[in-house]
Structures are given as C-alpha cells and as structure tokens.
Design a protein that fits this description.
The chain is an alpha/beta fold. 44% of the residues lie in helices and 18% in strands. The longest helix has 21 residues, at 80-100.
C-alpha cells in the first residue's frame, strides 16, 4: 500500500520536537508499505533533507520514508496572521499533491486543522480512502483560550472540522476527550480509534550520556519542563512556584525550562525581574541530547493553562517522554493525565493556579528521594505496559490497513 502522509510539522529524531509521525511512518515501512511524507519547514524540526529547494519544494528519502518538504517556514514564535497564512499555503500546495500523486490511501494529521483539506479533496474527487488524525479539538481549544474570537473565523473552522470528520473513512484521536469530541460531531464510534502519544523507550530508556546544566548542582533536585513555551503551556505557573520556593528558602530545588516558543523571552524577563535564579532556561536540543538530560533529572513538569478544554482534549508528548525516562511527573491541571498519575502513583497531581501546592509537591519530591525514585519506576512500568511506541504504532498501522480493506 502506498500512503500519502501529510504532517506540516514533521521531524526526525534529529530535531527537537515530537517524532510521532516519524515513528508511525517507520512502522508503516517496516510492515511493507510505501510512505510519502509531505511537510513544511518547522522551527526546531529536522526533516533530514539537505538538498536545495527547487520550485518551492525539495524531495529526498530518509530512513526509508520518501519526504516532500515545502519551503514554508513555520515557528511557534510567529504571529497569528503569519501562522494562518503558512497553514493556508501548505493546504493549497497539499491539494495539488493529493490530486496528482500516485497513492492508495491518504493520511493527514493535525495541527493545524487545515491539514484535513487534502484528504477532503482526495475522498471526493479521487475516491481515495482518507484517514484523519486529530491531535487537538479545533475550534474548541483556540476559542476556549481566547486566541480566536472572530465569529466568522470560528464558524469557518467549525465547518472545516465537520467536513474533515465526515469525509474521513476512519479517524484517530490522541486522547479520550478527543475521541469523545469527534463522536459528539456525529461520527460513529466504530470509525474512531484511540491511539495516544507513545513512549520512545529505545531513546529514553536506553544507554545515554547524562548531563546537567552548569547552574545546577549534583545534589539539587532538578525539575524539567521540555517543550514549547507558548500560551497553552501556562509556564507562569512554574515561575509562580519558583517564587514560592525562594520565599521558603529552598535553594536546593532548580526548575529548568528547555525549549522555544512565543513567550520564552517574556518568561526570561520575568525571571530576571523577580530574581528567580532557581529557574534555568535552555535552548531546545535533539532527542538523544534530551534523553541524556532526562537521565540526570529528578522530576518532569507537565503544565498547561487552566482551560477546561485541555483536561481531556490533549495528549502531550512531554508526559510520555518523562515516563519513558523513568521520571515522576508533576501535573498541574485535572483530566485524564492527572487521573493516570493518581491511579499509577507515578507523580503528583496538583490543582491549577495554586503555586503553594506546586511548591509543596516539589518540596515533597526533594525531601523523599526514595519514594520519588519509586514513583519514577512505576511510571516506567506504565510506559512499557501501555504506551510503548512499538505497540501503539502497530495499532496505528492495523487501523490504516483496515481503511484500505
């Protein structure tokens, strides 16, 4: 089977962002299928292609995956208008491929929601099987966050969401809430599969070269947030906890924010202004380097803005990286991840917008290193038992093969 796979933000492990699509494509190839990955140039990502762009795109093969990369640069630091235009340009160029490339099945994954547009054309103009993967519920999330307020834009996005869902032969949701959200739009449950983000055990549980930033002492408790520094991530909560820890005199607890994003400079300015020298900022690193950092980290930080739509409607890469590395997790919002942490006793679920509770969890972690280690081991057991990437990628391939049958 020839699969035309659309993911605007695709990256190999050489990049500093999520690699779900890379691993899923690799599993398709391992199962005997051919994959053409269509993507843009994503800030922090790395496609592995170094050839020059010709006519706005370049093409090459990386690890058995045929990759078509459009010369459309995207960064989380871009303004709304620039990002929206990049999304539209990618969708328009993708339509051309959907109508001209030779393939047996088209697969598209969000974000953005416009990723589903080539699948709509493939389904109705070429009669091709279309499978649509939903990583976030749009327009629910941007509406809940207040990022998009224009009723015409929200209405257009709602129509596109409905059309994408109804055009797809099968769908994939990355969290229970996403599956429920798709079903709420009238899609039969038997057309929706839950395939959450997975744990790359080969990267995070293998042999690594441990390291720490020079600002962090060997005996400090190190808590790490590894991901985008954007509005959705609610990282002011980490700085609020850092301020509370300073008031308590806990100089032995360091908080590391590693990544990039639109709000990073503002967070750095706040930390400097408030003399939060217990917060360290680093640029993003590739997966191998990140695994080395995780090997010398004590706690993973999973934070989001306090938006109810996030509680069950997200499946954050970083959470699964943390448990793959055997790290206990501090999570600061309710929902399915908080429930999972509680059920498996693999970290701390604290209420949102409560810096004292956040600081309490960090102090508890620092004061009882034996129990902290036990939490991390239970998290690793959860990773192996339920979220091994190999297990989930096989479930993914089975679902796509069923759409073609």
């Amino acid at each position: 089977m020839k699969v035309l796979y659309f993911h605007q933000h695709f990256s190999t492990p050489k990049g500093a962002v999520g690699i779900r699509s890379y691993e899923m494509a690799r599993r398709l190839v391992a199962r005997g299928h051919q994959v053409t990955m269509v993507c843009g140039s994503y800030g922090g990502g790395e496609t592995g292609i170094s050839l020059p762009f010709i006519g706005g795109r370049r093409r090459g093969t990386v690890d058995g995956i045929d990759i078509i990369e459009f010369d459309l640069a995207y960064s989380n630091s871009d303004g709304f208008t620039k990002r929206a235009m990049t999304f539209v340009k990618f969708a328009l160029r993708s339509i051309g491929l959907a109508l001209t490339e030779r393939y047996d099945l088209l697969f598209a994954t969000t974000t953005p929601l416009t990723a589903g547009i080539p699948g709509i054309f493939a389904r109705w103009l070429r009669g091709k099987p279309f499978v649509f993967e939903v990583r976030d519920l749009w327009p629910e999330l941007p509406k809940a966050m207040g990022v998009i307020r224009n009723p015409l834009v929200l209405g257009a996005m709602s129509v596109l969401e409905w059309t994408s869902y109804r055009s797809a032969h099968r769908l994939i949701g990355l969290s229970p809430g996403i599956v429920d959200g798709i079903a709420h739009r009238g899609v039969p449950r038997d057309r929706i599969a839950l395939v959450p983000n997975g744990c790359d055990l080969g990267i995070f549980a293998g042999e690594v070269d441990p390291w720490r930033p020079e600002q962090v002492k060997a005996d400090d408790l190190l808590a790490v947030f590894a991901g985008t520094h954007g509005m959705a991530n609610g990282l002011d909560a980490v700085l609020d906890a850092a301020a509370e820890l300073k008031r308590r005199g806990r100089e032995d607890i360091k908080l590391l924010l590693i990544g990039q994003g639109k709000l990073k400079s503002a967070l750095q300015e706040r930390a400097c202004r408030e003399d939060l020298d217990n917060v360290v900022f680093l640029a993003p690193v590739n997966k191998a380097r990140l695994a080395g950092l995780m090997a010398s980290t004590d706690v993973g930080l999973q934070t989001l803005a306090n938006v109810p739509a996030f509680y069950y409607g997200t499946s954050p890469n970083k959470f699964f990286d943390y448990i793959a590395a055997g790290l206990p997790v501090i999570n600061n919002y309710p929902g399915w991840l908080a429930g999972m942490i509680g059920d498996n006793q693999c970290g701390f679920a604290v209420e949102p917008e409560n810096p004292c509770a956040f600081a309490d969890a960090l102090e508890q972690a620092a004061n009882d290193r034996v129990e902290l280690k036990a939490m991390g081991l239970r998290g690793r057991e959860l990773a192996v038992r339920e979220f091994d990437r190999e297990l989930l990628s096989n479930r993914f391939v089975d679902w796509l093969e069923g759409a073609k049958a």
